[in-house]
Structure formats: C-alpha cells, structure tokens
Amino acid sequence: MSDYPALQARLVADIGAAPDLDALESLRVAALGKTGSVSALLKTLGAMSTEERQEQGPQIHALREAVTTAIAERKAALEGAALEAKLADERLDMTLPAAETPRGSVHPVSQVMDELAEIFADMGFAVATGPEIEDDWRNFTALNIPETHPARAMHDTFYFPSQMKDAEGRAMLLRTHTSPVQIRTMMEKAPPIRIIAPGRVYRSDSDATHTPMFHQVEGLVIDRGIHMGHLKWTLETFLKAYFERDDIVLRLRPSYFPFTEPSAEVDVGYAVEKGRRIVGGSGDDEGHAWMELLGSGMVNRHVIANCGLDPDEWQGFAFGAGIDRLAMLKYGMDDLRAFFDGDLRWLSHYGFGALSVPTLSGGISA
Ligand code: DAH
What we know:
Blueprint: H1 4-17, H2 21-32, H3 37-44, H4 50-89, H5 108-122, E1 126-127, E2 133-135, H6 136-139, E3 172-174, H7 180-188, E4 193-202, E5 213-223, H8 228-243, E6 250-257, E7 260-273, E8 276-279, E9 288-299, H9 301-306, E10 315-322, H10 323-331, H11 344-350
Parallel strand pairs: 1-4
Antiparallel strand pairs: 2-3, 4-5, 5-10, 6-7, 7-8, 7-9, 9-10
The chain binds 3,4-dihydroxyphenylalanine (DAH).
Family: Belongs to the class-II aminoacyl-tRNA synthetase family. Phe-tRNA synthetase alpha subunit type 1 subfamily.
Organism: Sphingopyxis flava
Main location: cytoplasm
C-alpha cells in the first residue's frame, strides 16, 4: 500500500509552486490525466478485496479531491496575476502629448450655437434644452396651436405610430420647432425667466433650402412689465453682436403666430456684394433689401395660463430663428444640404478650430 499522505503533500507542493498556467496543466495531466498517477491509483481499486477497498478507497478519493482543489486554487491565483500584469502593461499615460495633431473641426452649427450662448449669456440669458422626441401637447396644444392648425398636418410633422403614446396618452412626435422648450421652462421654473434654447427640429420637407432636420434657437423672457420695446432692443443687441457690426437695421412686420399676440416677423436690411448677402443698413437704402430673419412676439396670455402662470402678473416675449440660416448669412455658405453631408472638404473649409472658443472679449467668431 502507498503512502497517500506523502504523495498528496508532494503533489500539492508541486502544484503550489507551478510557475505558470502551462506548467500547471502539465502537472494536472501527470496526476489526473488518463495515465496520471492519481488516475492509476483509482484504477487499482477494481483489483482490491472488499476490505482493502473500504480502507483505501476513501483515501484515494480524498487524494484526488485534494489535488483537484489545489489545481483550481493555483489556477485562479495564476490567472489573477496574469490579469494584473496585463492591466499594468496596458496602462496608458493620458497626459502624454499627442503624437499627431488632431484633425477635424467644429461644425459651423456648433460654432453658431456657442456664439449665441456667449452673446445671450452677456444679457443674462441661460441656455435651456428639451427633448427632440416631444408630445403633441407641448409641441402644439400648450402653444395655443389648435387641432385644425396646418402645422399639425401629417405632411409637416413626423409622428410616431399611434400606439406609442406617452404615460398621459399624448401622441409623440419629433418636435417641429424649439418652442416646446418655452412650455417646459415655464412649467419647471418660476419667473423671472430669460432663456435661449438652441437645438434640432424636424419637418417632413426637403429641397435646397429645407432639410428634414434643421436647427432653431428659441428665446423666451418672462417677467413683470415686459413689452415690445424689450423685444426689439434684445434682438437688435443680439444681431449687432452676432454679425459684429453696428449698422444692423431691423424692421418689425405685423404677423401671426398662435403662441404670440401681437406677433412680428423681423426683417434685417442687407446688400449683395460679390454675389453674397451682407447684412447691414436699412432695406430701404439704395442697393439694399429686406430679408426675413426671425419670428417673434409677446407671449400669448393663453400660453402663459397653460403653463400655470397668471398672465395678469407675468408677461414676456419670445422669438425663434433658424440657426443654419444665421450661419449661412454670416459665413457665406449657399446650400443648406451641404451642412449635413459630412464632406471633409466642406468641413475643413467652413469648420472652426476646436480651441478658438467664441468670447465677447476675444471676438465672437473666433
Ligand atoms: N416656432 C416658430 C416656427 O418654428 C418660430 C417662432 C415664431 C418662435 C415666433 C417664437 C415666436 O418664439 O415668438 O416657425
């Protein structure tokens, strides 16, 4: 009969000293493999007498058990060490200087959004956002746009399938304008409110001047005693800072939007120089014309009431403008579709350096 405790001690010691996973595997095969030493002992059980087997069987099985456990423990230890070594080896020093100058540029739309935020922050406006997937109450109803308004027609609005209603049973859609951010802001924040809300909007429309996705910026001021003079001053100050010239002349034309009363469309004077529209001067001046730039007005009292505010106490103005349009006018692109083509030549020509952040002191167009 073999000395099982001595054999077990030797095998377990060898396993514990295995330097790597390959060596451990060799030891496993040598002990537990088909022709391994422990397997050979197990085979001797068959030839033993009943008494011998009752005495030695449990010892041999305990030996196999101990060897199996020792192998599993060593394996876990070696694998853990291998992972630690790999992690240490693959460490990257993120503070090292880049080996290559980064390519890429800031898209003009992002640039203009940064410019808008900078200009309006100087006037005390915060930047607000809302989701692009909106419900029809915030996109239309709360903005005083009745069911029968043409903007609600399927042909303008991308609706989600009718079974995809929100928790309140409202139809879901891709917002058609940034105006629902007015509703969200008035419902979430107590006045006084001064925000701009730039972002993506969607309409089922596509040609040289329309893309199914485009960008708008919304403005909203709610306070006591706000009137159209505040609106006109704000837009004039904004456009002078944005176009970086003092001779900006605005014309407010009476108009209609369901969410403002009274409403005004704002035109800006421009002249054509070398085939490009250059903003500045009165549209009535020699060689000048008027161009529509934004929609605006005093926030309709129904809209203020829809948001749970008392329209006798709180008034305000709102405006909305196309960001892509503003970018084209300032930076001279002539096809809106190119904004969304991702053409590297266009991006490197019209894009902005990532580090040239617009500031009022350093120059708004960087
Ligand atoms: N939401 C309007 C649109 O998409 C633009 C607009 C007009 C926004 C007048 C306003 C506003 O806030 O007062 O056509």
